[in-house]
Design a protein that fits this description.
- The complex is a heterodimer of chains A (about 600) and B (about 80).
- Chain A is α/β, with parallel strands linked by helices and about 600 residues long.
- Chain A folds into three domains: about 230 residues, Rossmann fold (3-Layer(aba) Sandwich), CATH 3.40.50; about 140 residues, Rossmann fold (3-Layer(aba) Sandwich); about 180 residues, 3-Layer(aba) Sandwich (Aminopeptidase), CATH 3.40.630.30.
- Chain A has 23 helices and 17 strands.
- The longest helix of chain A is centred in the N-terminal third of the chain and has 22 residues.
- Chain A is globular, with a radius of gyration of 26 Å.
- Chain B is mainly α and about 80 residues long.
- In chain B, helix 1 packs across helix 2.
- The longest helix of chain B has 16 residues.
- The chains are: A alpha/beta (about 600), B mainly alpha (about 80).
- At the A-B interface, helix 1, helix 2 and helix 10 of A face helix 1 and helix 2 of B.
Chain lengths: ~600, ~80
């Protein structure tokens, strides 16, 4: 990670040194290559250049298509060969309020005003609709306010006002984005307010070069777009790791005692820590996992959260490391305990020495330079978009409950004679069924963020998943697992591509939440059964080695497949299924 | 700020924008002499200069700039 591509951005450096920054970023490898088409309603040249930096910084290597100046509408509606050939994974529509075709006339009746609004919305709907043929993600700007408002304050509530008009358009965009699966809004209305409209737009630059925003705003815009793209490709973080003293509360619990720490509403300092805790709690409530990593006596550390004014409680934390070991070791233990990749962690600590040791020893952990004033902590988490969600799924919101349930399972496990006894006692039931519409969002999400238990790490857009669902050339099954402690949700996906009498496993993944529960055997049983129904005699499995999927390198061997080919560390496996015997012993299956 | 200092500052900007550490500009250098100096990079140069010297060019002024010498003179003028 290059520091100058993180909050707070140094726009001057980014704009001036973009070429050398790019060179430096390209020294890394293992990029995920993606085709990104930019359809601009104004000049996009520098947007393309800077967006490239932010994506490279997150391991995504973009190939770009840029529409000709202000040809976004034509490109979208009538298509063109070049765009067809380009096969975009993402189309970014960079339109702003300068692209609004017509504002209401000052003499228009309310009915006429509504007509103008619906005309403008219809234009964009037809664009999105027409682009749906590419089956790709569409990132669409909403609208910034115009610099000038000849109606003054009245502009925001009179039906002829531009501000009023733009608010309605943005509301309509929001409604459409909730409906259309592939449409994501890049909220420039928020961004321009955050930066200040007078900094956002540069009249001189508009007239000279047709940029619809100031040069300094370009890195901010690109940063924002890159957060959405990162999230789509599963590059967001999952766990927030917090120091305690002078991070979660003011003061030192070990020295000052429970009565001495600052939290609550009594003083300005206490209030500022309370604000931080409230923000963290919001993250937790929508599915971000919280952990503590603090140099403290465990007993003292825990006591801090028993403070009556503490927003965060002990049970909000999935992993709690309060001891005197070096923090980089504790952080690695946290990743193991929560069962996520070390690059899914964000570490917040007011102490620069601790930040430094974690950053230097485990560089894949995100360690923002938060300083030592709690006032700034939220900005570093919020504006870096570490936890940017693209949707809020029920599953995300419940994620922390799954971890809590898992803890109970672990306690149980210790009391059984054998692991089989334990599995039996869990009383597991699985739904293993063919893809259905209600689960497509979750399936797409899981396909794009599962790294460890994933044999091919093949990523899919929502459109591709939808096509697979509709096609007879695939066996496509998902698995949901329930046990006596709770519902684990949808946690396994298998996609088999059928060719003649062979089923090729394009995708085989499972959430690590249900490791060692024999769910993979239940999935294999179902895949074999479905294959037999279709006259398939052989199943071919592929293991493509990635930086993170070592745990499944011998899965097919465990399944009884025979290795048929080895390319470096990638392997291909075959299974003749005529005499297949069911492998799952512990899970009851619903598959009707 | 002396004219030499301005000249050095402008040269630094050219080197950053075109990412070539050995670019040497002269008064008579024009966009014909530097391959990547197109209209879009011209805008990038001008923005960087405005920021570096904390000045703003008026609309017409930019179009009339023919070479680096003209650019430097204009900066000197603005800084007075």
């Amino acid at each position: 990670m290059l520091n100058n591509l993180e909050y707070p951005l140094d726009n001057t450096i980014i704009l001036r040194k973009k070429k050398s920054i790019k060179k430096e970023l390209l020294l890394k490898d293992n990029f995920l290559e993606k085709n990104i088409a930019i359809l601009g309603g104004s000049t996009t040249s520098e947007i393309k250049n800077i967006l490239e930096l932010f994506l490279l910084n997150n391991g995504i290597k973009p190939n770009f298509y840029e529409s000709e100046y202000n040809k976004y509408h034509e490109d979208a509606l009538f298509g063109n060969d070049e765009l067809d050939k380009f096969k975009p994974d993402i189309i970014y529509i960079h339109t702003t309020s300068i692209n609004i075709t017509k504002y209401p006339d000052i003499n228009d009746t309310e009915e006429e005003v509504n007509k103008v609004i619906s005309n403008e919305i219809e234009k964009y709907k037809s664009i999105w609709n027409s682009l749906s043929k590419y089956n790709c993600v569409i990132v669409q700007n909403n609208f910034d306010y115009t610099m000038d408002r000849s109606l003054g304050n009245l502009d925001c509530y009179d039906i002829h006002g531009k501000t009023y008009f733009i608010n309605l358009l943005n509301q309509q965009f929001a409604i459409n984005a909730r409906k259309l699966k592939n449409l994501y809004i890049n909220d420039i209305n928020y961004l321009s307010s955050y930066l200040g409209l007078k900094n956002w737009f540069d009249k001189s630059l508009w007239h000279q070069a047709k940029y619809a925003l100031s040069m300094d705003s370009i890195p901010e815009l690109c940063f924002n777009v890159s957060k959405i793209i990162n999230s789509i490709f599963g590059k967001t973080k999952k766990c927030l790791v917090l120091d305690l003293d002078n991070t979660c509360w003011g003061g030192i619990i070990g020295d000052d005692g429970l009565d001495g720490i600052h939290i609550g509403t009594e003083t300005a300092i206490a209030e500022s820590y309370t604000s931080f805790q409230k923000y963290v709690k919001e993250l937790k409530d929508r599915g971000i996992t919280l952990s503590v990593c603090s140099k403290n006596d465990f007993k003292n550390a825990k006591e801090g959260f028993s403070h009556p004014d503490s927003i965060l409680k002990l049970e909000d934390f999935t992993s709690f490391k309060a001891n005197w070991d070096p923090k980089h070791q504790n952080i690695q233990d946290i990743a193991k305990e929560v069962n996520i990749g070390i690059d899914s962690l964000v570490f917040i600590d007011d102490n620069p020495v601790e930040r430094d040791i974690v950053f230097s020893q485990v560089p894949s952990v995100s360690v923002p330079n938060v300083g030592d004033d709690v006032i700034h902590f939220i900005d570093h988490i919020d504006k870096n978009g570490y936890f940017e969600p693209i949707t809020l799924s029920v599953d995300d919101i419940n994620r922390n409950k799954y971890y809590e349930d898992n803890k109970k399972r672990e306690v149980q496990q210790a009391t059984f004679k054998s692991y089989d006894d334990f599995l039996f006692s869990l009383n597991m039931t699985a739904d293993i069924k063919t893809f259905s519409s209600v689960y497509l969002d979750r399936i797409t999400q899981l396909a794009n963020k599962t790294n460890q238990f994933n044999l091919t790490t093949k990523r899919y857009t929502a459109g591709e998943i939808e096509n697979i669902k509709a096609s007879d050339n695939y066996i496509k099954i998902y698995g949901k697992l329930t046990d006596k402690y709770g519902d684990n949700g949808l946690i396994a996906i298998t996609i088999g591509r059928l060719e003649n009498s062979v089923c090729h496993i394009d995708l085989w993944l499972m959430s690590c939440r249900v490791l060692k529960r024999d769910m993979e055997f239940a999935m294999l049983d179902e895949l074999v059964q479905e294959s037999k129904k279709r006259g398939i005699t052989e199943i071919v499995g592929y293991y493509y080695k990635s930086a993170k999927n070592n745990m499944v390198s011998s899965l097919y061997e465990k399944f009884g497949f025979t290795k048929s080919k080895t390319n470096d560390e990638d392997t291909i496996w075959k299974l003749e299924i005529t005499h297949y015997e069911k492998k799952n012993k512990f899970i009851r299956i619903n598959n009707d | 700020m002396t004219k030499e200092e301005i000249f050095t500052g402008v040269q630094e900007i050219f080197r950053d924008i075109f990412d070539e550490d050995d670019i040497v500009i002269e008064n008579k250098t024009t966009s014909d002499d530097i391959e990547d100096w197109d209209s879009l990079n011209h805008i990038n140069l001008v923005s960087a200069i405005e920021k570096e010297f904390k000045i703003k060019f008026a609309l017409g002024e930019l179009m009339s700039l023919k070479d680096v010498g003209g650019m430097i003179d204009l900066i000197v003028e603005k800084l007075k």
